[in-house]
Amino acid sequence: MTTVKTKNHFRLSHHEGATKVVLLCHGAWSHGQGYALTPPGMVVQFYSVHGQFGTNSANIARALFGVEEEVALSSDVIAQIMRGDLTQDEAILAAKARANATGTGGAMIVDSVGGRLRAQLHNYTLGYHGPGGDESSTEGIWDAHVAEEYPSTDVDLICLKKNTRKFKDLRQAIEFALEKGGNYQEFHFLPCRHVDSKDATSMLSVGDLGGFADGTFKTVDL
To answer: What is the pLDDT of residue 101?
Structure first.
């Protein structure tokens, strides 16, 4: 039986006894966000490299919930985005499109952090709204999970509450998962791990990144 639990702008679709949880939203990091630690016994799985965009999150989520489908790599948005000067949001979408076109967007686990020893994590900022402005895929996955339409009952789902404008972070998501869900062994992080070239509050909103006046996309080397 699936139960929905909420707290502080998070929502959890929960199965009793689930050992895995998937976080589905938008994410990024700047130096001002700092770091978090993995809880003892929990492994955090990442599907993109730190500093890069994650792509195919919806397909990865469905695969984790037991839906067998090919993870598609699509580049059809490149031509639409790359015409003329890029806005902030278009720069993000263009970078995602390039990642899809080159197959570097991530469909497999690239970092597996934690376990018996606590490990340090970048404390990514989390937001509900992304640059595309359409969160229908997230809501579709949420509705299907709550309705128990997926084969797996061993995997729970965390999303931010629908249309919330509040930003949370990875540390808070993990704390929420442990409080409301249970002793998860695996925490699957599907948001982007984008790092902005600016510091502190520059990444608190994907709709207000700053630094794109010249139409270029900037990240830092870590």
So the answer is: 56
